[in-house]
Amino acid sequence: MSNAEDMQLCPESWTDIGHPIKMDAEYLDAQTRYFSVLFKKIMPRELGRNPKCHYGTYLFIGQKD
């Protein structure tokens, strides 16, 4: 998730469709509950696509049950 600091450090993230700032891990876990997890990782922000922002990068590969 983000905070007010992100509005200054990476304002582009607020208009990026499907951006992690709009979906937290709890929401994404609920959306993937019908899949067997083949790979799941939440990368820390420093290794993600925009290290200036306060979010991680959610990586998921699943197989439909």
Write structural notes for this entry.
With 65 residues, the protein is an alpha+beta fold. Helices cover 20% and strands 26% of the residues. The chain contains 2 helices and 2 strands; from the N terminus they run ααββ.
Task: Sum this structure up briefly.
With 65 residues, the chain is of the alpha+beta class. The protein has one domain (4-64). It has two helices and two strands; from the N terminus they run ααββ.
Layout of SSEs?
Layout lengths: L3 H6 L15 H7 L3 E9 L13 E8 L1
Antiparallel strand pairs: 1-2
Average of pLDDT: 80
Number of domains: 1
Task: Work out the helix count.
Answer: 2
Structural class, from secondary structure content? alpha+beta
Shape: elongated
Main pleated sheet: 2 strands, antiparallel
- Regions with little confidence, pLDDT below 50 for 5+ residues: none
Residue share in helix: 10-25%
Keywords:
65 residues, alpha+beta, 26% strand, single chain, two-stranded antiparallel ribbon
